[in-house]
C-alpha cells in the first residue's frame, strides 16, 4: 500500500490536528513522515502546548502506519517530555519500527525549532492496530 502526498494531505485535512496547527509535509516515505507545525494565532500561549502532543503523535503515527497496516488507530502510547520550554514552530517525525498484518509499533519525536536548529522536546512510542 503506497499512499501519495495527496493521501497524507487528506488525512491532515480531516484530523483534529488542523484545528491546532498549520501543517506542512517536510518528508514522507513508506512508514515514515516528517511534518512542520506552526501554532495557530489563538494558541499564542505556548505554555499550554504540551497538551497538544497527544494529538500530534496520533496524527503522525496513523500516517506512518497506513503503508504498513492500512487505516489504523493508536491503541496505546507513552510520551516522554525532555524540556519544559516550547516554540510556536515544531518539527515532528514518526516511523514504523515493526509491523505485521494487524498491528505495528512506532516511534515519534517532536522538536522545537529554535533559530536554525531543532531541539528535542518530546518522544513517544506506542502501538497501532488496524481498523
CATH architecture: Roll
Q: What is the chain-wise order of helices and strands?
A: HEEHEEEE
CATH superfamily, by name, is Hotdog Thioesterase
Largest sheet: 6 strands, antiparallel
- Percent strand equals over 45%
The radius of gyration computed from the alpha-carbon positions, rounded to a whole number of angstroms, is 14 Å
Number of helices: 2
Shape: globular
N-to-C terminal Cα separation, in Å?
15 Å
Q: Give me the secondary-structure category.
A: alpha+beta
CATH topology: Thiol Ester Dehydrase, Chain A
User: What's the CATH C level?
Assistant: Alpha Beta
Number of strands: 6
Helix content: 10-25%
Mean pLDDT: 90
Write a structural description:
By secondary structure, this protein is α+β, with helices and mostly antiparallel strands. The protein has one domain: Hotdog Thioesterase (Thiol Ester Dehydrase, Chain A, Roll). The chain is 21% helix and 49% strand. It contains 2 helices and 6 strands. The chain has a 6-stranded antiparallel beta sheet with strand order 1-2-4-5-6-3, with helices on one face. A hairpin with a 3-residue loop joins strand 4 and strand 5. The longest helix has 17 residues. It is globular and about 40 Å long. The two termini are 15 Å apart. The mean pLDDT is 90.
Describe the secondary-structure layout.
Blueprint (H helix, E strand, L loop, with lengths): L4 H10 L6 E9 L2 E8 L13 H17 L2 E10 L7 E11 L3 E12 L2 E14 L1
Antiparallel strand pairs: 1-2, 2-4, 3-6, 4-5, 5-6
In short:
This protein has helices at residues 5-14, 53-69; strands at 21-29, 32-39, 72-81, 89-99, 103-114, 117-130. By secondary structure, it is an alpha+beta fold. It has a 6-stranded antiparallel β-sheet with strand order 1-2-4-5-6-3, covered by helices on one side.
Amino acid at each position: 500500500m503506497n499512499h501519495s502526498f495527496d493521501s497524507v494531505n487528506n488525512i491532515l485535512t480531516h484530523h483534529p490536528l488542523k484545528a491546532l496547527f498549520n501543517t506542512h509535509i517536510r518528508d514522507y516515505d513508506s512508514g515514515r513522515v516528517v511534518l512542520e507545525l506552526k501554532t495557530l494565532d489563538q494558541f499564542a500561549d505556548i505554555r499550554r502546548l504540551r497538551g497538544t502532543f497527544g494529538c500530534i503523535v496520533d496524527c503522525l503515527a496513523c500516517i506512518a502506519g497506513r503503508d504498513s497496516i492500512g487505516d489504523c488507530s493508536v491503541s496505546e502510547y507513552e510520551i516522554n517530555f525532555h524540556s519544559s520550554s516550547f516554540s510556536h514552530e515544531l518539527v515532528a517525525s514518526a516511523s514504523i519500527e515493526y509491523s505485521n498484518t494487524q498491528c505495528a509499533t512506532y516511534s515519534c519525536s517532536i522538536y522545537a525549532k529554535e533559530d536554525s536548529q531543532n531541539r528535542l522536546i518530546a518522544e513517544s512510542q506506542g502501538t497501532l492496530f488496524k481498523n
